[in-house]
Write a structure and sequence with these properties.
Elements (H helix, E strand, L loop, with lengths): L9 H17 L4 H4 L2 E4 L2 E4 L1 E5 L4 E10 L22 E3 L17 H4 L16 E7 L8 E7 L15 H7 L2 E5 L4 H5 L11 H16 L5 E11 L1 H11 L9 E5 L14 H11 L6 H9 L3 H8 L18 H6 L8 E6 L6 H6 L2 H5 L3 H14 L6 H9 L6 H29 L4 E6 L22 H5 L12 H20 L18 E5 L4 E4 L3 H27 L1
Parallel strand pairs: 2-5, 7-8, 7-9, 9-10, 10-11, 11-12, 12-13
Antiparallel strand pairs: 1-2, 3-4, 4-6, 6-8, 13-14
Helix pairs in contact: 14-15, 16-19
Keywords: Disulfide bond, Hydrolase, Signal
EC number: 3.1.1.-
Enzyme class: hydrolase
Length: 563
């Protein structure tokens, strides 16, 4: 007679449960399935078999595969070079070290209640590795769509291991690749000349995409069906790769989530601000570019980390190589190869996470009608706008409101529009006349975050990511309501349909229209709906009304000078 599990002693129950899991893990799998070996152009790599919960679908994971030589010594502040071949079988069962970064930034209020396993992460300058998640049945010739994820983090923090591609690979039958790239000073420092052109992190992304082209077929992927996707600075990376001549032919579709190449804080600016700050902090006692680079190459990882800590965000540069011109010029002149794109934002981009990171959360909490003028003047100068613009911003967003809560909410909306919504709509408008664009606004406030966030926060920056991957940070299981489960499956299906066919639609899904002259977009929520002309008035304010007023101001100031 077989005793039901519930009648077994608890310790034995645990043993039986463990055995059941083990059987699930290896039943019907020979050792080549449990620890698969694949070829790459530099050597063989051994992965492991993961069973995706709830589905019992097997996924092979290959972690920490080098796509470039370690960027150390003379390769610090230099373009990535091809990885060295290895003999024997390389172990691909654990994550590589993460790139050098200030992890204290992730202990901020936006993250501290999430119990992230940050203390377990090792960090190194030797960090140019990628991870592959592929369905266990996939083999060379499977020709599955490939989705390459580029993490966010203001180009100063982030890691490939933070996002687990197992669920997406298992449920939607795709190959998911997550990549790392140099961050902060090591990733984006530039001297503005031949001694250190900059954009090293972007060049790393190109190197990773080249590696995918050469090798992904061995893992069941189709190199002619590659989609790049990313969030925040990862979305800005995707957008920059779209306009860069260096990435031609390396991907075929693009997804930009809350980040584009026109993001004001990530947009290529002059290199001088970062250059001067690094030179002053380095102790190198030189402003000569060649001597400074030589000196910085001699600094320890700890010394570089100390310099990194002053940067909450770091911009790319127009280096003449990865970005031959300003992205706005490249987009306007269609001096790039347009690809079908999904582009979108969340409805509360400046809700909690970004203000916390940028150190403005407290200032916002203290906004009243009395200090609003001063806060707006300061904000306008940070936006590199004339101080007189603060009155126009106040009129547009705050009107005559006296209520502090409303003023704070309007301030958050205003900065969210400036940083995320307006640049994203601009990029969508540039691209839609040359290739299909599907636009979305994610509107769902995740139930699993309600207990750790203020109630006013709606869909904050990055809230859509777990719904795309079906898991939380570092592969932690999401506790979703039934309605959220449906939203999760729907979003996975939209994203992968797009990767597979260049169109997110399929039978059984609410229809997602292409963005055309009617400005249609999808409102991604528990009940999806089609909207029109997202924030059209705000877009007009930032792209027409305000620039026009600035021109008028300049004219009248010049006339005064002449008088």
């Amino acid at each position: 007679m077989i005793m039901p599990l519930k009648q077994l002693p608890s310790w034995l129950n645990a043993v039986v449960f463990g055995l059941l899991l083990l059987l699930l893990h290896v039943q019907g799998q020979d050792s080549s399935e449990a620890s698969p070996i694949r070829n790459t152009h530099t050597g063989q790599v051994r992965g492991s078999l993961v069973l995706v919960k709830d589905n019992n679908v097997g996924v092979h994971t290959y972690l920490g595969i080098p796509f470039a030589k370690p960027p150390v010594g003379p390769l610090r502040f230099a373009p990535p070079e091809a990885p060295e071949p290895w003999s024997g079988v390389r172990d691909g069962t654990s994550h590589s070290a993460i790139c050098l970064q200030n992890l204290e930034m992730m202990n901020s209020e936006g993250f501290k209640n999430m119990d992230l396993p940050l203390h377990t992460l090792s960090m190194s300058e030797d960090c140019l590795y990628l991870n592959i998640y592929t369905p266990a049945h996939a083999h060379e010739g499977s020709n599955l769509p490939v989705m390459v994820w580029i993490h966010g983090g203001a180009l100063v923090i982030g890691m490939a291991s933070m996002t687990d591609g197992s669920m997406l690979a298992a449920i939607e039958d795709v190959v998911v690749v997550t990549i790392q790239y140099r961050l902060g000073v090591l990733g984006f420092f530039s001297t503005g000349d031949q001694h250190a052109r900059g954009n090293w992190g972007y060049l790393d992304q190109v190197a990773a995409l080249r590696w995918v082209q050469q090798n992904i077929a061995h893992f069941g992927g189709n190199p002619d069906l590659v989609t790049i996707f990313g969030v925040s600075a990862g979305g800005a990376s995707v957008s920059s790769l779209v306009v860069s001549p260096m990435s031609k032919g390396l991907f075929h579709r693009a997804i930009m989530q809350s980040g584009v190449a026109l993001h004001p804080d990530l947009i290529p600016d002059t290199h001088k601000r970062v250059y001067t700050t690094v030179a002053n902090l380095s102790g190198c006692e030189t402003m000569d570019s060649e001597a400074l680079v030589h000196c910085l190459r001699g600094k320890s990882e700890a010394e570089i980390l100390d310099i990194n800590k002053v940067f909450k965000i770091i911009p790319a540069v127009i280096d003449g190589v990865f970005l031959p011109k300003h992205p706005q010029e490249l987009l306007a002149s269609v001096d790039f190869r347009p690809v079908p794109s999904i582009i979108g934002v969340n409805n509360d981009e400046y809700g909690l996470l970004v203000p916390t990171f940028s150190g403005t959360a407290q200032t916002i909490k203290e906004i009243t009608r009395e200090n609003l003028q001063a806060v707006l003047k300061n904000t306008a100068s940070q936006m590199i706008l004339p101080p007189e613009c603060s009155d126009l911003i106040m009129e547009e967003y705050m009107g005559d409101t006296e209520d502090p809560q409303t003023l704070q909410a309007q301030f958050r909306e205003m900065v969210g529009d400036f940083l995320f919504v307006v640049p994203t709509l601009q990029v969508a408008h540039f691209q839609r006349s040359h290739a299909p664009v599907y636009f979305y606004e994610f509107q769902h406030q995740p139930s699993y975050l309600k207990s750790i966030r203020p109630p006013y926060v709606k869909a904050d920056h990055g809230d859509e990511v777990p719904f795309v991957f079906g898991s939380f940070f570092f592969g932690m299981k999401l506790v979703l309501t039934e309605e959220e489960e449906s939203l999760n499956r729907r979003m996975m299906k939209y994203w992968v349909n797009f990767a597979r066919h260049g169109n997110p639609n399929s039978e059984g899904l609410p229809y997602w229209p292409m963005m055309d002259e009617d400005e249609q977009y999808l409102q991604l929520d528990i009940q999806p709906a089609v909207g029109r002309a997202l924030k059209a008035r705000r877009l007009q304010f930032w792209t027409q009304t305000l620039p026009q007023k600035i021109q008028e101001l300049k004219k009248s100031q010049n006339m005064h000078k002449e008088l």
